[in-house]
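User: Assemble these into one structure.

Assistant: Restating your components, then the assembled model:
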Amino acid sequence: MDTSRRNFLKLSGVGLVVAGLAVVGCRDDNMDMPMNQNVFDLGKGDVGILNYAYALEQLEADFYTKVVNSFYSGISMVEKQLFTDIYNHEVIHRDFFKAAITAAGAMPTPKLEFKYDGVDFKSRDSILATAKALEDTGVAAYNGAGKYITNLDYLVIAGKIVSVEARHASAIRDLISPGSGAFSGDDVVNANGLDVAKEPKDIVMAAGGFFKTPFTWKEQGIG
Amino acid sequence: MNLLNILDKLSDDQFFTKMTSRSEGLSDIANFGRKAAIASIPLGLGSFMATSAKAETTTTASTFSAASALTDALQLALVLEYLEDEYYRTGLATTGLIPSSDRAVFQQISKHETAHVAFLKAALTSLEATPGAKPKFDFTAGGNFQPFSDYKQFMILAQAFEDTGVRAYKGQAGNVASNKAILQAALQIHSVEARHASQVRRMRMNKGWIELKDGGNMPAATNAVYAGEENVIQAGYNTSTLFGAAAGSASFDETLSGSDSAAIAGLFIA
């Protein structure tokens, strides 16, 4: 169907070594390993989706925090501002979800730990490639999760965030390939003019290389 | 209505290469004044002139059924896509307007808007609704703009249309949520418009995102596109606490009601 567009999520392009997926359940070996009783499950229904979004925003916030805490050498003023803005937005998103989930009386995803094997935080190319993967993943994740949300207020919230992630993705892609169609490239937008949308299971598998802390989302068949 | 069938069809690229025959007998869409007289509003926009804003859904007080809200949302989206499609086609066909260094961007945007028109027509048809006919557009908005002779103005309106599109789709999420396949497709179009918006904004030396309600060197005539974007309260959470109002307001985009979306589009309908 859209096999050509799956490639953007293969993070091998950014030089990542996906050495042992942290997400429980992605192993295709060893069914006898006892499950860690302390592995967090994202939950059911809308809470699960909010926690999913929270987990992804934690990843983005963590990544951009590293970027702004030590900008790659030679960074331009424009790019410094851009990354600072994106960092701001992702941290706000992250904190928003924690507050929203707590306010809903549910248990938020704990503070997750991340790893960036193969990412060189001193390299502009590496930062941009990783940012592109993360932003496109965010867009695909929200687009694919929307249909599972039952509370329309949460759906609107998700809508308000995904378009910002798409603005980020567009900007990053344009920095990589200025003046081209890459901002809204054929690798993410299909012949119908539709952006990528991925199932939670696919997103979690694709982004698994970044997550050090395991989690499950049994309702979505993850872990 | 078999949702799985619709989802299959909507994701089957072949389905959309078939031409959707335009319905004969639709009355000419004309005479839409800027005062937006309800009687003369084009098919697709009329139902939105009386609905209320924010997380728009059909209410028990409304005369519309969920199915009507769904197709009305798609008809509105179709009008906006017709507008963008014709706008970019015209711009690209206007000799000397778009600098060669910018053509690739507008060709990509144009390609998507054309695809969106086809997709929405097919989606409406699959719901057994007749897609509205393309309105007659006036991109000068009654002589207020010269987008095809002044590239700066072309860019201004491009930015306005894209930022409007993002808000308009978002505002209709509640109305399409009853059909999961359509909802997902709407989200997938919505994020593409956001990519477009970000690119055009940045080409105009703005940030790709909207801070407060400042469109960024935009004329007052476009204020309606940005009104409300300064919002910093999201579900009771104050987004300005951490980094200030500009960052907070930019971290979430806002909705536009169907009536507000229709009003903006209506400015450009002859």
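The radius of gyration of chain A is 17 Å.
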